[in-house]
Amino acid sequence: MVETDDRWMARAVRLARKGFPAPNPRVGCVIVMEGELVGEGHHDHAGGPHAEAVALKVAGSRAKGATVYVTLEPCRHTGRTPPCVRALIHAQVRRVVVATLDPNPVAAGGIQELRDAGVQVDIGVLLAEAEDVNRVFLTAHRLQRSYVCLKAATSLDGFMAPEHGASGWITSERARRQGHKLRAEMGCVLVGRGTVVSDDPRLTARVRGVVNQPKRIVLDPSRRLSGKEQVFSGPGSAVRVVGSDRGAVDDWVLPSRSGLFKPSELAQLAFSKGIVGMLVEGGPGTLAEFLRDGTGDQIEWFVSPNLLGSGKRFDLSMWTGEPWAWRLPRLLGEDVWLRAVRA
Question: Which of 31, 53, 176, 248 has a CB 3.0–4.6 Å from the CB of 39, allowing a cystine?
Fold first, then answer.
């Protein structure tokens, strides 16, 4: 039974990696009847059907008496979609195997409701694998702040941009496409005012399969941007974070210290606004401020083989040592992609 449970849960974990459901969790679901796969699905995007609902629709009447493998505790609340627990009970499934519990108090409690309805529930199958898939969601809810991913693209000699504010790509198209995927996975992108002034970026996620564009956050403590920049228009929504005495109606107000915000407070504020993951794409100053504050859970670093010789340099020593556990480097065309997570 253990070997069989592991096999089907591994399939559910693979399904959970699909889609861009931020700020919702990544969930995969597999339905098995007498050793045969009868339904499966994943949560593709926020506002779309949950993994259990997709799998139940595929299974139809064959779900009666079946075993359901799901990577996260089925929800019991009504949001933009109906509760998954009630759908499972209505389908008369016999057993539900859950990898990990939901730390969100709004959604938790589904396991007890299933048991109260006579459904057998087992917990903890492939726990580590399921938690790795949902690292962003689980960490954010456990710490009550947005999960922070720090992203940088540098030349081989450690420069993030050419001199004199000149705009231009440092890394290849493949690396930039991975950056867009990160935006969609996190569901939110943050930059400082300087990045907006020098690059006028859109900060959208231009990859296939994205339904909901990421939220854009701009640090603009003195409210010096005009509001006509590209980041404030287009699909999705954007907001600027300002100092306590300069806010407009739609701004987020957070006291700053000499024009700098305390990243930990910003991450807490973002979480209170419903943001679970935050990709920090700012320049050297913004990234350094997050690192000095100890507010960072993941690093994504793309290194080009090109040499700039001069420009905006980032202190690479801030990436190294504790508390980061680095993954083996990968190649994206000619670029090197490095990833680290907080140990």
Answer: 31
